[in-house]
Amino acid sequence: MKLEVEYKMKKKARKKLVKVINEYYGNLFDTSKLNDQELIELMLCLYY
Asked: Which long-range contacts (CB under 8 A, 24 or more apart) does 35-41 make?
């Protein structure tokens, strides 16, 4: 059950991150094909 809760939180966090990237960059990046690590790296690159 603990793993299931962590997975849902992770999925929710990913969804928010994708929403922020798409909102600010207008679907410039195809975030659906990125894994979690690549998504975090993209966000960090865009932030800095």
From this structure: 36/10, 39/14
For residues 16 and 43, the answer to whether their CB atoms sit within 8 Å is no
| Rg, the chain, Cα only | 12
pTM over 0.90: no
Quote the tokens at residue 8.
């849902």
Every domain of the chain and the residues it spans: 19-48
Q: Express each pLDDT in 2-24 by its tens digit.
A: 667 677 778 888 888 888 888 88
Q: Which residues, in sequence order, are CB contacts of 3 under 8 Å at separation 6+? A: none
